[in-house]
Amino acid sequence: MLDFEIQRCTRRCAESGEELKPGDTFYSVLLSEGDKVLRYDYSERSWAGPPEKSLGWWKSQMPSASANRMNWAPNDVMLHYFQELEGQEGKQEIRYVLALLMIRRRIVRLEDTETDEDGNELLVLFCPKTENENKVPVVAPSEEKISEIQDELAQLLFANAS
């Protein structure tokens, strides 16, 4: 498995050089350049869509310096929710997104990918805490579903710091 360090937001638009101010909507994209994965941030005005060979992209809003820091739910809560989603009708997309989040947070480890008998790609994940292996279908959410998934995960897995 390859592990990449992704740099933080530069707070500057890669296209125009303008500063991204608190409250500004911006887009981030990951591109493979040689043996590195680089992040580029774009202001909403400069965003023309993700480059053809992008590895991934997302839309964000620049937080204010005084914004409350958000805390993740404990790892056990994420794992429990992940297990609850297994086999639930209509929840494959959110389970896939949660799996990616847990990989990023190093709660689970991506061991491999495989293809099932129907030709669907599966992520093979290992959880060191539970010593369980999980196979998660790769189900990228549709544009319409993205904000719904973000809202659901935010409500369940984030809490304002006290």
Structural overview:
The protein has 162 residues and is α+β, with helices and mostly antiparallel strands. It has 2 domains: 1-67, no CATH class; 71-160, no CATH class. It has 3 helices and 8 strands, in the order ββββααβββαβ. It has helices at residues 75-85, 92-104, 143-157; strands spanning 25-33, 36-43, 54-61, 70-72, 109-115, 121-127, 132-137, 158-160. It has a 3-stranded antiparallel β-sheet, with no helix packed on it. A 3-stranded antiparallel β-sheet has the order 5-6-7, covered by helices on one side. The longest helix is centred in the last third of the chain and has 15 residues, at 143-157. The chain is globular.
Strands, total number: 8
Cα-to-Cα separation, first versus last residue: 37 Å
Shape: globular
- Count of the domains: 2
**Helix/strand/pairing class, anyone?**
alpha+beta
Radius of gyration: 17 Å
Quaternary status: single chain
What does the average pLDDT come to?
A: 85
The low-confidence parts are none
Widest sheet, order of strands? 2-1-3
- The helicity comes to 10-25%
Q: How does the major sheet shape up?
A: 3 strands, antiparallel
Summed up, the helix count is: 3
What order do the SSEs take from the amino end to the carboxyl end, as H and E?
EEEEHHEEEHE
Helices and strands, with pairings:
Blueprint: E1 25-33, E2 36-43, E3 54-61, E4 70-72, H1 75-85, H2 92-104, E5 109-115, E6 121-127, E7 132-137, H3 143-157, E8 158-160
Antiparallel strand pairs: 1-2, 1-3, 4-8, 5-6, 6-7
Helix pairs in contact: 1-2
